[in-house]
Design a protein that fits this description.
Number of strands: 14
Number of helices: 13
CATH class of the largest domain: Mainly Beta
CATH superfamily of the largest domain: Immunoglobulins
CATH architecture of the largest domain: Sandwich
CATH topology of the largest domain: Immunoglobulin-like
Shape: elongated
InterPro entries: Annexin-like (IPR040685), ASTN1_2_Fn3 (IPR045574), Astrotactin (IPR026995), FN3_dom (IPR003961), FN3_sf (IPR036116)
Pfam families: Annexin_2, ASTN1_2_fn3
Organism: Acanthochromis polyacanthus
Order of helices and strands: HHEHEHEEEEEEHEEEEHHHHHHEHHE
Radius of gyration: 36 Å
Strand order of the largest sheet: 5-6-10-9
Strand content: 25-35%
GO biological process, one term: neuron cell-cell adhesion
Structural class: alpha+beta
Protein name: Astrotactin 1
Helix content: 25-40%
Number of domains: 3
Distance between the termini: 62 Å
């Protein structure tokens, strides 16, 4: 049995000799038909019978290998290996020592921190699993660091809004330790199967634009390039069933003779609603009872211009976009449960930080809890 060279290479993979076969590339190209003067090309039985001339094929075989493997001199081999490691992990501006880079004197920034080992930029993004609500968003990123040169010890998260002073939090000192993060909570943390980190950011204002920025910080204090996400929170949520009930209540209070006590009850009820629910009360009142008088006119007639003006001025607190959504015939209220980790104060530096499996230590200081998140669905539900 004759074994062709391609079959021999394939057999190396089957027998586990992958290092011998790794990097091997074979390329076959036709070289045209044999000339009649070549006696070697006409020795096959088919050629001898004159049915078909043999066609020579050139098999080119190449194998990729590191440069330093091709050098036999030990000193040259060592120098090439060190140079390759420096280019791979230290940008060619330092030497690899164990699992870190010793930077050359020229590889330091104006802040005095070493710059030869590239610091990976984390990629901040919105959660694919949970959509933002009017007061809450979930941000996530993957923890990644090279095996040599850089050791990430923390992440910095900044929240920016036009109407709020910038807030800068340390993931380790402020969030993971539970020191001061009433509006920021842990979602997912890295484990042996996933490198994902997620944070639940609460206390946000509806219909407001926020910018979130994330940096990785290494053990020298150096920051990575920031990763940014800008988002506008949805309009305030409303309970449309409750708004219909209040519209019926106001009609009953205004119907017929309205005593001073009933006027005060109607005034207190409407002032406590807030702009979104007041919009829906106005909508349902006019849908059902406009034949007895439009809502704004009835308020002025029953409560007087001053009190009616205080109530109706709340309607201007919403943006035109949210006002338009609140005119939808049907607004559904949807509830979702969100799990998070509520952490007590813990000195994370006491037990060190192992990003690949921090779950065991974190769960000693954090309790898993559930948060109810409300969403509105506008308009009639679409049939699938």
């Amino acid at each position: 049995m004759t074994l062709t060279f391609p079959a021999y290479i394939a057999s190396l993979l089957d027998t586990g000799a992958k290092r011998m076969a790794a990097g091997v590339r074979m390329d076959c190209t036709s070289q045209g038909q044999c000339p009649r003067s070549c006696h070697l090309c006409h020795m096959s039985p088919r050629a001898a019978q004159g049915r078909q001339q043999s066609e020579p094929v050139l098999l080119q075989i190449t194998k990729a290998a590191p440069i330093y493997e091709l050098v036999s001199n030990n000193e040259t081999y060592q120098a090439l290996q060190e140079a390759m490691m420096s280019m791979l992990w230290c940008s060619g501006k330092g030497d690899v020592i164990d699992d870190w880079c010793r930077c050359d004197s020229s590889a330091f920034g104006t802040d005095g921190l070493p710059t030869c080992a590239p610091l990976p930029q984390p990629v901040l993004k919105l959660s694919y699993t949970y959509e933002p609500s009017s007061s809450l968003v979930i941000m996530e990123w993957n923890h990644t660091e090279p095996p040599i040169g850089v050791r990430i010890v923390d992440y910095l998260i900044m929240l920016h809004c036009l109407f709020v002073v910038e807030t800068l939090l340390s993931f380790v000192d402020d969030i993971l330790s539970g020191a001061r993060s009433p509006c920021v909570m842990l979602g997912d943390i890295p484990n042996l199967l996933s490198s994902s980190i997620s944070m639940i950011i609460r206390c946000l204002e509806p219909d407001t634009t926020y910018m979130f920025r994330l940096w990785a910080v290494d053990n020298t204090g150096r920051r990575s390039s920031p990763s940014e996400v800008t988002i506008k929170t949805p309009c305030p949520t409303v309970d449309d069933v409750k708004a219909q009930e209040i519209a019926d209540k106001i009609y009953n209070l205004f119907n017929g003779y309205t005593s001073g006590k009933e006027q005060q009850t109607a005034y207190n009820t409407l002032m406590d609603l807030g702009a979104p629910t007041l919009h829906r009360v106005l909508y349902h009142y006019n849908q059902r009872y406009e034949s007895f008088g439009e809502f704004t006119w009835r308020c002025e007639d029953e409560l007087g211009p001053r009190k009616a003006g205080l109530i109706l001025s709340q309607l201007e607190e919403l943006s035109p976009w949210c006002k338009g959504l609140l005119q939808e015939p049907k607004i559904g209220l949807r509830r979702m449960s969100l799990k998070f980790l509520s952490c007590r104060y813990t000195d994370t530096k006491a037990f060190g930080l192992n990003w690949s499996d921090m779950g065991q230590d974190v769960h000693k200081a954090c309790d898993e809890q559930t948060l109810a998140v409300m969403y509105n669905d506008y308009g009639e539900p679409k049939e699938l």
